[in-house]
Amino acid sequence: MLSKILFIAFIVGTASAATVRGRPPPKPLAFADKDGCYIEEINDVIGFGESVAPIGICHRIYCGRMMTYASCSTVATDDPTCHVTGEDLSKPYPHCCPYLKCDAHDDLFEPSILPK
Q1: Is residue 79 part of a domain?
Q2: What's the CA gap between 107 and 95, in Å, rounded?
Q3: According to the model, what pLDDT value does residue 37 have?
Q4: Structural domain tally of the chain?
Q5: DSSP character at residue 114
Q6: What distances in angstroms separate CA 25 from CA 5, 53, 70, 81, one per listed residue?
C-alpha cells in the first residue's frame, strides 16, 4: 500500500507541477544599472542564470533569457491515515509546498527529504 501511495504521489506531482515562462518585467529606473531580471516580488534585480525563492510566496523565480516561475505540484491521497498539509509561507520554495503527512509513517513524506 505504501509503495502504491508513493508511486501515485510521484506521478501526480510530476504531472501537476506548474512552470510558467515569460519576459522579464521592465526595470524601474532605480535598477537600470543592474544586469539581470527585475523581480517585482522582492523589488530587486537578480543576475542572469540566478534564481530566488522569496519567503511568503511559494514559488521559485529563475532569471534567464526568459523568466521562469516554478510552483508546487498537486498532492492528493485517498489513504485515510494520510492528509495533505497546507502551504507554509514562512519557508522558501520547495519547503513551503504542501506534502503528505501520514499517521503510521509520517517520516516518509516530510519535506526534510527535499534538497535545500
Answers
A1: yes
A2: 15
A3: 96
A4: 1
A5: S
A6: 41, 17, 17, 45
